[in-house]
Every structure is written in structure tokens, then in C-alpha cells.
Write a structure and sequence with these properties.
Strand content: under 5%
Distance between the termini: 19 Å
Number of strands: 0
Order of helices and strands: HHHHHH
Number of domains: 1
Radius of gyration: 16 Å
Number of helices: 6
Structural class: mainly alpha
Length: 136
């Protein structure tokens, strides 16, 4: 089973990393600059990036495994739907729970929420394209 999941895990992880980089590094860069006072210094964040990579990798393993075990009809549509649902769940925690704890702009919390839905929706679509049903 691990061999069957390894390639989808790697592909989805790379997909999420690229989308996260575009989302956080480009689209939200202005909001991060506006709220710079609440974030760690850049040197600290750079030194601890491994934590983000590791947590994203572990989350990707869970994402792919749940799809593999619980989604019976594997297809691009089912992958998209699964990704949107997963993204909604992750986005609520990431966006709104963090908003409740940090003095961050609401626009950033909402962007994280919507971003999770979009990123995981795309990741789910990719997963649905690469992990298909066996032909009978």
C-alpha cells in the first residue's frame, strides 16, 4: 500500500507547496507586510521553515490516505469535492482560530480560510486525476 501512495503523496505535496508559495509569498505579501509587528522576525521564520514543510508533508500524507481509504469512487470530481471539503475544515481552523488568538487583520484570516479551500480543492483535483479506480 505504501508504494501505491508514495507517488500521489509526493505529487500532492509539491502541488500544495507551489500553491502555498504563490498564495502566501505573492498574493498575501501585502497583508503580511501590514501586520509585520505580530510575526516572528524573518530570520526566525527562515530558520523554522522545516516545521512548516514537515507539518505540510504530514498533512499531505493524511489527505492522500483519507482519500485512498474513504473515497470509494475515485475521480477528478470526487477528488475536487474531497479537497474542497478538507480545505474548508482546515481553513476554519487556520483562519478563524488563529484570528481569535492573534491581533491579525480580519482580511488575512478570511484569506487564509478561502485560500485553504482553493489550495486543497486544487490538490484534491490533482489527486483525483492521478489516483484512479482500477479497471474491472
Amino acid at each position: 500500500m505504501f508504494k501505491k501512495l508514495l507517488l500521489p503523496i509526493i505529487i500532492v505535496f509539491v502541488c500544495i507547496q507551489v500553491l502555498d508559495g504563490l498564495f502566501h509569498g505573492v498574493i498575501l505579501s501585502g497583508l503580511y507586510q501590514q501586520s509585520a509587528a505580530i510575526w516572528r522576525p524573518k530570520a526566525d521564520m527562515d530558520r523554522m521553515m522545516w516545521i512548516i514543510y514537515l507539518s505540510t508533508f504530514l498533512q499531505t500524507i493524511g489527505f492522500v490516505y483519507i482519500y485512498y481509504k474513504l473515497i470509494n469512487e475515485k475521480s477528478p470530481f470526487r477528488g475536487l469535492w474531497f479537497g474542497l471539503t478538507f480545505g474548508f475544515t482546515v481553513g476554519v481552523g487556520m483562519g478563524y482560530s488563529t484570528y481569535a488568538m492573534l491581533p491579525m487583520p480580519y482580511a488575512l484570516a478570511f484569506s487564509w480560510f478561502i485560500g485553504c479551500i482553493i489550495i486543497y480543492g486544487i490538490a484534491g483535483l490533482v489527486l483525483g486525476l492521478i489516483m484512479k479506480e482500477k479497471k474491472a
